[in-house]
Write a structure and sequence with these properties.
Elements (H helix, E strand, L loop, with lengths): L5 E5 L8 H16 L3 E4 L5 H12 L4 E6 H7 L7 E4 L2 H10 L3 E4 L4 H15 L7 E4 L6 H12 L11 E4 L2 H11 L5
Parallel strand pairs: 1-2, 1-5, 2-3, 3-4, 5-6, 6-7
Helix pairs in contact: 1-2
């Protein structure tokens, strides 16, 4: 069977985030579960990532957490779902890529941005062809897309890079767009 089976969710780990972002993460988790797709995330029991994972699990969806050992002490384990413990952040990012057919980037901080930018960089370098959407409320990711456009405008990136990502404020639209953009290479 080909197609999307797992979606990686990059997002913030702050418990102090705006409740609108927590609700968005929960809505996304339920939408992924409803489609029978697995939610793959960075492990832990904090912030938007736990909100998405818990919502998917409670909706009957499959969830996989991938967490570096040192973060277990800080963020804990969501013991109700399977998780893989790795040694480094680099191992986690590689495994998140390998375990997923698409990527959603919810609001988050520097760690979320770093994961998203690396995944986008890998796509630009043709190391993968997996769709990537930035999902937000309150135009959270608008400045990031303005930055990408400026990179293209100033010739630091080709215009084709803009085709590798999209932004949305609706979880269902985001997941539908993954189906439109998915390329089965296997």
């Amino acid at each position: 069977m080909s197609g999307i089976k797992s979606v990686c969710v990059y997002c913030g780990s702050s418990n102090d985030a705006d409740p609108a972002y927590i609700e968005l993460a929960q809505e996304l988790g339920r939408a992924i579960a409803k489609r029978g797709w697995r939610l793959v995330y960075g492990g832990g029991t904090v912030g938007l990532m736990f909100a998405a994972a818990e919502a998917a699990h409670k909706a009957g969806g499959e969830v996989l957490g991938i967490i570096p050992q040192f973060l277990q002490r800080i963020e804990g384990n969501y013991d109700d779902v399977p998780h893989i413990v790795v040694e480094t952040m680099h191992e986690r990012k590689k495994m998140l890529l390998d375990e997923s057919e698409a990527f959603v980037v919810l609001p988050g901080g520097i760690g979320t941005l770093e994961e998203a930018v690396e995944t986008l960089s890998w796509a630009k370098l043709s190391l993968h062809a997996k769709p990537m959407g930035f999902l937000s409320k309150n135009e959270y990711w608008t400045p990031f897309f303005e930055c990408l456009e400026k990179m293209v405008e100033h010739k630091f990136a080709p215009e084709s890079m803009l085709d590798l990502v999209f932004k949305s404020d609706d979880p269902e639209y985001t997941l539908d767009e993954f189906l439109n953009r998915f390329v089965d290479v296997g």
